[in-house]
Batch of 3 targets.
Target 1
Amino acid sequence: MEQDTHFDSDDLSWDPAGEVAVTLADGASTVEGGPASGAVIVDGGTVTISAAGTYRLTGTLTDGQVLVATGEEDVVRIILDGVDLSNSAGSPFVVQSANEALVYLADGSTNSLQDAAGYADQAEDSPNAALYSLADLTIAGGGSLTVNGQYNDGIVSKDGLVLAAGNVTVNAADDGIRGKDYTVLLDGAYSVTAGGDGVKADNETDEDRGWLLVSGGTLAVSAGDDGVEAFSQLTVAGGTVTVDQSNEGLEAAHIAVSGGTVNVTATDDGVNASGGSSGTGTLAGGMGGGMGGGMGGGETVGDYSVDISGGTLTINSQGDGLDSNGNATISGGTVVVNGPSNDGNGALDVNGELAVTGGTVAAAGSAGMAVTPGSSSTQSGVQLTFGTAVAAGTTIQLADSGGNLVATFVAAKKTASVVYSSSAITAGEDYTVYTGGKAQVAAGLGNGTLDGARQQGSVTAGEYTAARGPGGR
């Protein structure tokens, strides 16, 4: 997907001799140097850039605006090198027209943008973010940027958006960072606090658009609605994504994790592939009869998918943990789900087929809506169903017939069912379940010993209770 963006690494190189220096000051902004200096017009608190070129901005406007209004084929590079820019009536930074705008954060610089709490211009297509672009937008550089979107959104591109580098903090009344055709995080550190969605790509009309990719860098999100959302495809191929507060953590029609580290906390579904916005117990007899499971109880199987092939995905959800309104596949990586305690949701919820062919899966939660790997799975697993839910913090361990530990899991919340699959599990073999003992885990899984553990029962690999069944027998 990276090759489908407007971004080119050559955009990050230029001849400093060609820079235009713009010093921002209330009522006294100045322009000097460079062949494009005549393309900068200062009118009171508004600084307008009207031609392609490289512009280095310094200084402060307590009530002003930087406006980019160039030809549709022009590429404009704006270097923020110690800029503090605010506007009392609207957006302080607007790209009205260009082919591409690059906002480059000068190494070592600290910059800030803050818009008005209410906008004077309320027209439908008017700016509604502290950094607003109608053209392709790239953010790069080694400096820092704080964006306060008091009115609505923080950073918006109504075209494509590439976050190539930078240390960026966004606080927004509604959405934090929003691209239309695509939103891509290549590198840098981005921290978003949003009243609405955290980071999104929302083109709902053009084919092959509305996608979001994280291939590097770090993204931390605290959102009042969805954490990271795309209309079509959401992919994490590298980097670190942490959603520490959200309604739904990751949401898109198609969600893929092939690398990196993803940690999601959600009051509803943790990972949701859909077309919407958004104490020690006793093991109850182990497995029910029959192979299979994994189907969504007769629900419609739509064109939605979750595909985990690498990386680490950790979910803590009050609703469904990993939820697909279509199919789901896990072929690599590590998936840990600390799902719901109530029986109205499940740690795994797949309307179609859940195919597990590799990786490690530990999905813990309630038993009433438990979904298990389907018949197309080539890697075996077990389902542990407790007659009495075990308390948060309980160590749950699994040993083979020779007494060798094959799994150690520590429950993050009250747990009645655990589905576990890994290459260490052999279909048809019996395994003994223990609670207690010693454990050293990261994200719930790790190593342990059976010192002090209590035997709870046994299970047979590959035998699952019926999907959405009551658990146990």
Target 2
Amino acid sequence: MRLSRLPLLALVAVAFVATPAAAQLTETEQAMATSVEAGFEQDVALLERIVVQNSGTHNHDGVRKVAHMLAPEFEALGFKVEWIDQSAAGRAGHLFARHEGKPGTTKMLLIAHMDTVFEPVSGFEGFVREGDIAIGPGVGDDKGGIVVILAALRAMKAAGTLADANIVVALTGDEEEAGNPVDLARADLVKAAEWADVALDFEGLSRMDGRDMGVIARRSANNWALRVTAASGHSSGIFSEGVSYGAIYELARILDRFRQELPEENLTFNVGVAAGGTPAEISDDGLSVSAVGKTNIIPSEAVARGDLRTISIEQTDRIAAAMQAIVDDNLPGTDATIEFAFRYPPMPPTEGNRALFDKLNAVSIDMGLGEMGIYPPAGRGAGDINFVAHLVDGIAGLGPGGTRSHAPGETINLLTLTLQAQRAAVLMSRLAAEPATRD
């Protein structure tokens, strides 16, 4: 379907008429809104260039090429650009851009990522524009978010508000699958967060019931692997005194007790793959399982692998302990172990995050776009902001809106590039005028 593009400033004007109680933007803020609108086609052209270049997480050369395209864009705005090699973590690297402004004012960390889930073998490539909808790999997640950042910064520079702004832009090259060890892969992001007063994450805009939503919390993304062993034997003796129940029944007991006993708010735990037999094993990469067995043999091994998503460290620790207790309550003749891989920590909904959201919401109201809501954390996956949530107040969802993220046919509503860049430019300009909260 081809959509017509109504200038966003016209939309803002209509909203002001409909909501006379809303405070209007200052003259400088209006100038930024106008500047973003004027740069629309330039922004779309940049988006097309970086989308056409495949940058799947494991396509290291592709990630570097996207970084090379983006570096001059930041340098033209007066940023000092640094390429941070991540070959030691098995990844391409990160692009950081730094702008030194007025001392003693709010220090901002802007987060986005250059990589996508679409490797060259995916078959999903190119950039197709149909009016104000565009289709392409990573067009919204998260190359559109990068364009939002640049559009907002250009508008700030044109209006004179960038000069005083203290900003670090962190564009990671492995957000979709962080390198190993994670501490190395995220060391520079963590260091930037220790410097910053606020973190602004430019992944996609969330909407609910036709309303733009802010994101003040994102859940963790962790993995677990379950291994069960049992004494084998003739199947005719199963359930008898002194005879093993077998590994598959023990695996089923554990997983079903997870299902029945663990569920609570903001918690999910998926079983991604499972197998049992004599023997059964998980592949080294954890992506497949194999097993053989006969119906008249009690199975000696069973394996399963899944994820665990939580809203806080407290919930993570408590649920992991509950899972361990279930695993340890073995059926006769069986034993089981569970191993956890804690990868992406949670971003809990703190008061500091809520206060930062309130500032974003004020911008939205002043633009005549209406009051934003807070998006339920269970509706979002983990992201790079999770790694710094324990260090700095933050909000996410400042990128553009679209559909089919992580799926062939991923789309972006190009109008939201402008909308979100306007919001971000005003928010960052206001933050840049506030005193720093850290020395």
Target 3
Amino acid sequence: MARSLVIKVTAGTDAPERCNQAFTVAAAAAASGVPVSLWLTGEASWFALPGKADDLGLGLAHATPLSDLLAAVLAGGTVTLCTQCAARRDITAEDVIKGIRIAGAPTFIEESLTEGAQALVY
């Protein structure tokens, strides 16, 4: 069975380096053909909205732009916005970038406990 990677990112502009690390790992995994699932929670929830990865510009030296990393993950993996995090921010399924789903803890647990899965939290 192929190994998969589940990444939960809780940081946004409040911790830009940690946020960018999570997106970088997810994009690298997707580009390498590893099944990857990136979960947007907490302050990272805002990146599910169109243009927010650019608008909130992390401006980290030597870092790939967050919008490019998100596009890479969407092209080769899945991106999920936490149900509760979306509700707290009044974000609906109609608001998010095409290809991003909204799901909750049961789905995260299911993905994380799949045989061969490795879960990381940033």
